[in-house]
Structure formats: C-alpha cells, structure tokens
Model the fold of this input.
Amino acid sequence: MRPRRPLRSVWLGNPRYLSVYGLGVAQAMSILGHWHRQVSIWDSANDVRRQIEEMCPDVIWTHMALWPPSGALSAAEIADILGRWKRRGTAVFLHDGDPKPDRAVSVDVGSTFSIALVNRAVVDDTAWGIAALRWPYAAMVQKEIAEPTTEWTCDLLFAGFLRIDESHYGERTSLVFRLHQLLGPRMRIVNAHAGDVNNRMVVADVAASARAILGCARPEVPGWIDTRVFQYPGAGGLLIHDGAGEFLEPNVHYLRYDRDNPVESIISLVERAATAGVVIRENAFAHVQRHHTWIQRVEVALRAFFGGGA
Done:
C-alpha cells in the first residue's frame, strides 16, 4: 500500500560515476514531490547504514549494487544492508541497465531486492529470482530546446566509450573511427577513455548545437535500448541511429541508418539533417518529453511495487 505522504527515497550507488539513471531518478522524485537523498557505496558500511536509517526509506534505488567497484563496499556488505530494508517492506530496486555476459552474481538476489529494472526484453520475468520489469533509460525533464552554442557546433557528434579491444564496444568503435576519417573536423568525438570529460550535464547544449548525434544499437541483446534514444531527442537533438525499438519513429523522431551499410548511410543522413533537422528535432522533443522522461520511468517502477497511481 502506498503511504499517504511523500515517499522517502534513497539512491544507493557510486556517485563517482556520473550516472544518467542516478540524475534522472533524483530529478523525477523531486518533481513528483518525494524526499530523496544519495548515499555512496564508497562510505563505510556503518556510515551507509546510518544514512539510510536517517531516511527510513520507502524506496531504495540501487546502482552497481551487485557489481561494485574495487575499494567500495562489497556486494555482500551491500546485500546485507539492503536485505534488512527489504524485510521491513521497503521497495528495493535492482537496476540492470547495461547487461554484460561476464557479470557474475555472488549474493542471494531474492533476499536482497524486490524488483529488477532491466533495460532489455523481459522474456523470463523471474530470471533474477525476482519480478523483472522492462525499464529503458529516459530523458531528463526539459521545458524547451536550448539555444545553440558555438562550442558544440559540428556536423556529427559521438559521445561515449570507445574500446577497440572489447566485443561490447568494438563494432561501434570501428564505425566511429571510420566516420571520423571521412568527416575529419566536421565530426566531434567525446571519449572518456581518451581523457574527455563526461558531458552528460551539457546534453541540452550539445543537442541544440550539433547537426546530428550518432547512436548505435545492440541487436545481440533483444530489447536493449541505447540511452541516446531518449537523451538527445529529449533535449531537441537530431539522432542518427540504427534502431530505437518501438519508442521512436524513423523520419519523424530520428533518422535511421542502414545497419548493413552504415558508413555510407550515416554520411548521407548527416547531409539530410541540414534540411530535415528542424521538424524532426521539434517532433522528437515533444514526443520524448511527453512519454519518456525519468518521471514516466519512476512512475512505472513505483506502480509495480505499490500498485495504483504513482
């Protein structure tokens, strides 16, 4: 049963990584009128217990809880803390936004979490041993498209990890490097592995300024949706992508490139963006802000646990 008061909410995760999920949940909980705080898994176990106890949460959103970085609390320590709150009736959400095949699980998920929020198709909704909900990424809430800035003006921009030696990123890394060879200074790459700063907090500026932004699907993971599908169109950007699932309509909300002939297709769409950009940007911004912000995602998760309206 949903309390007849604002929910008390905790995000327990790794704040050293600028997570759009963490930012989005915080924004949505605030807009919805709930009381929310962040607790870091880099703090000691006793400090984390105390900070969570201070909130006495109805909801705990977790980040990297099963796969914490070295030096942070261990998965076992995190599970012990979360399990106590699950037994007290708190909604403890497991977030699995970017599945990787090498992620081993060392704790009893069923004793620790209430519902898994997964960014992929839910074929077996008990794969984690708990109920699972398809829960893609989303856009930050934004009231209007920003003014363009000269700092981010370019014909094509890609922001994200590039690692040629990993199968997860190898294909898109090769594609991005080939496009950069062809477009030269017309293309801008923001790559944390090359020392660039994570630019998530300037998405509104980037989206309004770049002629187009590139994203890539992961067809080997059924139902997985790239965060860029919502992040950039939701800020008024023109997205060039090879698949947005059922969430965006090609030529209405974004431009879809040919996965079988990606380089030539993307180059052609970059030129098309010069004329098609204004209408698509406006369509995409209105659509994503209406249906796919973190407010909608948070409401879906809360309804799944509490029932009724969020």
User: Anything to note?
Assistant: Residues 79 and 196 are 34 Å apart (CA to CA). The chain is about 35% helix and 15% strand.
